[in-house]
Amino acid sequence: MFNNKTIVYTSGTFDMFHSNHLKMINYARGLGDILIVGVSTDELVSSYKAPPIIPFDERIQIIQALKVTDIAIPQHTLDHTEIVKKLHIDAFVVGDDWFGKYDYLEDLGVKVFYFPYGNGVSSSSLKKTIYDTYDDHLHAERQTKPVNIRKNE
Predict the structure, then answer these.
(1) Element (H, E) at 37
(2) CA gap 2, 47 in Å, rounded
(3) Could you give phi then psi for residue 116, rounded to 5 degrees?
(4) How do residues 60-84 score in pLDDT, each as one tens digit?
(5) pTM of whole model > 0.85?
(6) Helical H segments across the chain, by residue range
(7) Measured between alpha carbons, how far apart are the two ends of the chain, in Å?
(8) β pairing state of 71-75 and 34-40
(9) Where do the domains of the chain lie, and which CATH numbers do they carry?
(10) What pLDDT sits at residue 2?
(11) Cβ count within 10 A of residue 84
(12) Residue-wise over 63-77: b if at least 16 C-beta within 10 A, else e?
């Protein structure tokens, strides 16, 4: 807490921004007075999964444009110890697909909330749907393309 204000930090890749991202950010906003959103850099994301579709500069601009975001910052590491200490974070919110990963922050006096995405939209599912649709389209196109066979005269 700083000047009697609760500081909340949430972070993510926020690739292909969708409704579950917005729900989690709005939930984080409701937990405090100041909301800081960390946006994972392309280099960080690429260290543990496929690179984002949307470049970092565009992803952070999207987060900065949200009315609920007070500050958007680059996130260079999955270890939030330093950011918690430097910015006096009181609460941390992350998707429940990371459940248990950030429990260590509670030893630093930070309340950790794992936001339940539940079933539905995720960047990974969006990417898969786009890929599958494109692949189906290519397969269908190959099946319907006329074959030009010349007869020997």
Answers:
(1) strand 34-40
(2) 33
(3) -80, 105
(4) 999 999 999 999 999 999 999 999 9
(5) no
(6) 19-29, 42-46, 56-65, 81-87, 123-144
(7) 88
(8) parallel
(9) 7-118 (3.40.50.620)
(10) 79
(11) 20
(12) beebeebbebbebee
How wide is the angle at C-alpha 66 spanned by C-alphas 75 and 126, nearest 5°? 70
pLDDT at 119 over 50: yes
Please give the structure tokens belonging to residue 122. Answer: 């995720």
Distance of CA 43 to the CA centre of its chain: 14
d(CA 104, CA 89): 14
Length reported for the chain? 153
- Structure-derived torsion over alpha carbons of residues 85, 87, 90, 96, reported in degrees to the nearest 10: -90
SS3 9: strand
| Spatial separation of the C-alpha atoms in residues 26 and 149, rounded to whole Å | 61
